[in-house]
Amino acid sequence: xxxxxxxxxxxxxxxIADEGDQPGPxxxxxxxxxxxxxxSGVLKVSQASxxxxxxxxxxxxxxxxGRHVFDIADGWEGKPPGGVxxxxxxxxxxxxxxxxxxxxxxxxxxxxxxxxxxxxxAGDRLVEVAAxxxxxxxxxxxxxxxxxxxxVPVVFGSGKRYFGSVDAQHLLEDPDAVIQGSRVxxxxxxxxx
Length: 193
Fold this sequence. Notes:
4 helices, two-stranded antiparallel sheet, alpha/beta
């Protein structure tokens, strides 16, 4: 089964959005270079960011998000973000009535069920878990294998935390990737077992 990877762009002080759920400059690094990151040509990053990010994106088979993120993004209009094959939404409310019935979105109740479903759908590919409350719950359940952070040089002061409301200590290994891009520092850690 594919490894579960917790991922997001994050401020220096550990926030993935401000109090109003706005990312502010957290995604500016995706527009700060001259190398197209996807076929749209809109996202352009430094060569170092491309070499780190593109292979990761290509290995993602399923993404797990919470219902809050799904609602904020308006369900990406039924098209999984970044070309991901499947999106698993952790929710107690289920699929919205009449919402894109053909879309490869799966609505499950609970993070453990989300990981099981995502791994079944992803096969040997990676399962990406969005950082925040759901990501923190998956980490607390011992189901995260790796933590990836794109650290952006901004301090929010408050907002939505990268690890959500995790209230226990979790040890990570030393970083096995530290990549400096333009307006971003990419870090990757394995979770200590």
